[in-house]
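Action item from last week, closing it out:
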Amino acid sequence: MKYISYLICFIFLFLATPAKAQDDRYRVELIVLLHLNHAEKAEEQHWLKDYSDALDFLAPEPEPEPESEESGDEAVTAAGETAEVAQPAENINETGEPPTDEPLLDTPGEEFDPNAVVHIEEMSDAMQDAWRRLRLSGPFRPLQYLAWEQGRDEPFPVLRIHNDDTVLIDDPFADLRDLETLESEEPLPGETAVAESVTEVSTTEEAGEEEEALPDPTLYYALDGTASLLRKRFLHLYLDIRLREAVFDDLAEPQPTIGATTTSSLPEDKPEQPQPTSFLVYALEQNRQVRTGRMEYFDGPVIGVLAYISGVSLPEDEAEE
């Protein structure tokens, strides 16, 4: 009887002790798709949910600044010949090759954070096949792809997934940006007085004090939302995605950008963009348990999501840190 009691206690202790997870990290791949033959009626809204606080790997890259005549791989000499310009030392790694954007988990001399969030650009074979099938299918169309790799411990990241089509730009500092643009442009003959007046308005701070950069405008995309993989006792995937279409009133006069104030110093010939009066919105909000190594489908009347989650194991020396 004594040994049976010990055995029962041992079994309870074993069951109560959580087993160590085999996966040190997770790779998450998502495909947002559209049901073409849906009969769902969109909800009309006069406001849009803002997802700008989420981690955005799909943000459009800023436009490169115009290069000077001597920049680039070649420069023009006084004789009119071209000469190669040496690359900066920081652009060459120890192997003599240009650096790559791919994350290196085993970079010598660098400690890798096992809970770091890394953007993955290449599709896995399973998702490539799914994307191809969706493009060739009749009732579905793939809209957007997003993949990332994350750790299994808190804090769990919230990723933003969106396309490049904006339905609204909220820029309270639009007029100030226009003033900065006017300052940067060289005045034409006869416009010196106007340029001087603009400079006086924009230089209200003390000389030598560095001006703070203006906050970026808030962008609202046609396809916009967030995704988050959480690991507690089981894996759960949270999805909050919107498909939005702007509605314009043809009889309404064009309005300035939301939050912007008009000033008399702006050029009069600048056309004002019409602002939408409302938005047609389709939503997909789901939270469900998921498993690794298999295709998961989140279905909605208009929007659907294919999710494929893979377990990733780190080398033993990195996993122990």
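Closing note: The chain has five helices and 14 strands.
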